[in-house]
Amino acid sequence: MDRQESQTTSSARPCLKRKLDPEFQGQDQARKILVVEDPNRDVQSNSTATSASFSRPHWNYDVFLSFRGETRKNFTDHLYSALVRVGIRTFRDDEELRRGKTISTELLNAIRGSRISIVVFSKGYASSRWCLDELVEIVHCRNTTGHTLLPLFYHVNPSDVRRQAGTFAEAFAKHEERFQTDMERVQRWRVALTEAANCSGWNLESLANGYESSFIEKIVAQVSCEVEPIGMNVARHPIGINYRVDRVKNLLNLGTSDVRIVGIYGMGGIGKTTIAKAAYNQICYGFEGSSCLLNIKEISEQPNGLVRLQEQLLCDILKMKDLKIDNVDRGINLIKKRIHGKKVLVVLDDVDDMKQLHALVGNAEWFGPGSRVIATTRDEHVLIKLGVHGKYKVEELGEEESLQLFNLNAFGMRHPKEDYLELSIGAMKYCRGLPLALEVLGSFLLGRSVGEWKSELEKLQKIPHHQIQEILRISLKSLDDGTMDIFLDIACFFIGMDKEYVIKILDGCGFFPVIGIIILAQRSLVTIDHGNKFRMHDLIRDMGREIIREKSPNLPGKRSRLWFREDVLNVLRKHTGSKTVEALILNFSVLEDVNLNTEAFANMKNLRLLQINAVHLTGSYEHLSKELRWLCWHKSSLTFLPQNFHLENLVILDMQHSNLKQVWKKNKIFNKLKVLNLSNSKYLTKSPDFSQVPQLEILILEGCISLVQVHESIGNLERLVSLNLEGCKNLRNLPRSISNLKSLETFNLSGCLKVDKLPEELGNMMALTKLLADGTAIKQLPFSFGLLKNLKTLLLSGFKEQSAKSWLSLLSSWMSQKSLNPVSLLPASISGLRSLTEINISGRNLSEDGIPIDLGSLSSLWNLDLSRNNFHNLPDCIRHLPKLYFLWLGECTTLQSISGLPASVGVLDASGCTSVERLSILPNHKSRQFFVLRNCHKLTEIQGLENLEFTSIIHTEGCNNLAYDFRSYLQ
Prior knowledge:
The strands form 7 sheets. This protein has a 17-stranded parallel β-sheet. It has 29 helices and 36 strands. It is α/β, with parallel strands linked by helices. It is globular and about 120 Å long. Among the domains are: 3-226, Rossmann fold (3-Layer(aba) Sandwich), CATH 3.40.50; 241-393, Rossmann fold (3-Layer(aba) Sandwich), CATH 3.40.50.300; 399-462, Helicase, Ruva Protein, domain 3 (Orthogonal Bundle); 471-550, Arc Repressor Mutant, subunit A; 553-620, no CATH class. A hairpin with a 5-residue loop joins strand 13 and strand 14. Helix 3 packs across helix 10 (212-226) and helix 23 (481-494) crosses helix 25 (513-522). The chain is 31% helix and 13% strand.
């Protein structure tokens, strides 16, 4: 068939997508094609697709076979058997249906109720008027209902069919002679033959070289691909599904021919299975075989569970029935052999063990090009071990989606009934975007009165819903005792607290928290936010607390952890605590008139965690547990720690805002103490003797405004990594021994108004990465500063406005002694600090002469703050900073021009530079740029605007002298 003939084809309709007979490949490229999909899917078409659409009928059969009797007992019989064997519902008529003068009603209904018609054009096909009448109906259905026509050319030339030549010419000569009075019927046959032969088809001779078995195998494979698998039931109310399915489909990257495995993970009830099933329904039509295996964890725990799953996988993909496998190893070999080379889609729902994955999908080599595997799990680590190509953590529903889903379950509509709005919102917030909870709670409240709603919601504040809990608790299975203890401690006490701080507490309890927290995070039981703090879904938190409560529902004193204020006060006032209690928390925001006797703790021999903020204790401290690892006692009224308070096992002592004047009176060794936080203890005048805490790693004395000295023994703290003295405004001198802190990484002196110098041996602090000394009276850094090779952050900004007078007084006095020479704050040795990334020397009254010329050698510097200084021009060394991205020049009121900026600058703040007349900027082609030039009143010229990226932003409010020409560049 030539190109001209292909273009005369009648109205084009959908045909199967397959490797075409070479004679027809060019023809299909010239025709308009519309691929009609399930109405729940997106309609896809090529660029020349018609705008027509079809309503989809209900298919009773997958395939209707049209054939001449001469092939009934050989080729057609083999084809029919092969189709049925793989599960394709195929209609084949019997002789009885062909005994009338016209096509029977049964045959018409069978054609109309079939999705695909396979027409076997044999040499005698056209001699049968029944076959030709069938073909007319098939072509009609193809043109009106989206029915697919697949022609097979069995020992005949496709051109003979198309042109009615050869044996087809002989047959039509007889038809025309016989039906001279009904030539319209004959013409319909001719048109039908031509249109059918123009469809993409299969030619036995050219495709399979005459081998029928190979020919049939190829046909069955392609028909299996086209016959849409039975979809999975997704959800009654699929709120928020489409967006999440799109996230998964993006990971699948369906347009590529590689084999990809992707994972969906998240907490129980979040909708992982629903998303996987919805994705399966949308894409399964594009594969040779597909299988969606649900509840794998549950099934694999049953006898021969994995074998049953292997059998189902093969039956689904191969369209086989009653396939039996002896054992898992046999199943693995069978899956590899039978699926090898096939393009398949497999969904593995709720996997929790690699042996399940090994038994079912092995690795990518098992599958043919284009195959996809979707695995859902609560445990992210399973996906990591599997080596997935992408993973999607399912997020909670938003408030609007949540309210819709809840209302659909509670009222059968998207909006609540009158008088139920506030209650619905309350229920929705309780569920915190968890689909399972929204569905369960909504269904439970369906048809109940306002009073019943209120009662249930009040109950949920103390006792979680059992059905929701059952699903959530599955995530806790197989956790070892230590990891379970970590989970319960976080659920009861540590939500919102710093991860590293909590790790020290839990490590002191012997729980191996580093790996334990990773396991909990991978199972979506805890999360770590951007501030490195623990977060937990409210329902997960409630689950943990309910596990504790239900072990002793009526006797709180026999629970392992106490957190609910009423329960805690009840136990402490009635002295009903027991050795079961491991942790207790009682918080008041201010010191209230709550007097508790220490004898209330006498029976809590195993108490390891104690938080009693703003609580006043009386009595002997011998009654408190010797097993304490964490004592958090904010706003304590103690002026010192009693001698009989046994804290030998304490890891963290947190007594912020206390009345302590000194920490302890007599020498006592605390060999396990790692964190001492006495911040904002306003009466503390001196630090303790640090020889008593040899293992200390973190010392926080921030805001201790009466502190005047730090004990010389601080230099003996070989493990100290963080020292915070911020806001100790009466601290004058630092002990020389502080330079011996070779493990110190963070040193915070900000706001120590009277500290005017650092030890000369500061360079000995080889581990120091952060030196924070904003708002101090430090006038010059010691020369040894250049030895701090690991230093990344240096903050030396001057006093803020509230301290401006004291700063100016100090500066004036000092400069008068120096004959008004420029301040040389930074030593020349700073040029060797190649690891330095951030410097803040704002508000130091510096001129350009006060900046070391070698500052440009700081190759890692990306953030430089020179605000509120006295530059006339930018120091020339700045142009040599290759990674500088942030440059802050705000309120440099004497600065006259800004030029020589490196091209790396992405953010420039020069607001309030009231003397600047000219700015010259270079484009940063790697990112958008942001310039703040507010209130630069004398600015008249901005050079380089024409080269900026269109996404750059320039703020010029108050720059009233800019020429009009420059304004045309600004947005």
